[in-house]
Every structure is written in structure tokens, then in C-alpha cells.
């Protein structure tokens, strides 16, 4: 069950990602989740510890930085994958 802390992280991550036009995909284990999907994040952030972030699009650099900062703020370990 997700904690309230996780809920806050999920909402903030999705809201931050939603500000960008780039595709922002979180890889957790063998699953790929659209970071703009609160439901996708909710089911993923509960069971996984290590995440990889894949970002593609016109504002990818800004999106990578902003989303990675939100993960770090909530103590979630994310690796931004350079494509």
C-alpha cells in the first residue's frame, strides 16, 4: 500500500511531467510507465526501488532536470538515461 508520502510524490511527479511536451517514460524493472499517468506511477512506485527515466522531445533537457529534481526531493532513486 502506498504511503501518503508516496502519494504526494506521485502527484508532484505527474504534475511536473505534465508541464512538458516531451515524452517522459519511467522504466521500473521491465515495465515502462508514462510519467504523466498518475495511475501508472501509483502502481509502480510502490514496488520498485530503482528507476530509469527516458525523455524524448523538444524540451527534453528541461524535463529531465525538473522531473529528476522531484524524484530526488522525495528520496526516490532515479537514473536519467542519456539517449
Automatic annotation (TrEMBL):
It comes from Paenibacillus aceti. Transmembrane segments: none annotated. The lineage of its organism: Bacteria, Bacillati, Bacillota, Bacilli, Bacillales. InterPro entries: HPr-like, HPr-like_sf. Residues 11-72 form the HPr domain. Coiled coil: none annotated. This is HPr domain-containing protein.
Amino acid at each position: 500500500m502506498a504511503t501518503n508520502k508516496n502519494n504526494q510524490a506521485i502527484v508532484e511527479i505527474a504534475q511536473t511531467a505534465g508541464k512538458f511536451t516531451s515524452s517522459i517514460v519511467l522504466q521500473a524493472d521491465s515495465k515502462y510507465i508514462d510519467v504523466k499517468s498518475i495511475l501508472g506511477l501509483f502502481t509502480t512506485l510502490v514496488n520498485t526501488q530503482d528507476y530509469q527515466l527516458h525523455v524524448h522531445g523538444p524540451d527534453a533537457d528541461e524535463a529531465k532536470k525538473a522531473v529528476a529534481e522531484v524524484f530526488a526531493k522525495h528520496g526516490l532513486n532515479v537514473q536519467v538515461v542519456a539517449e
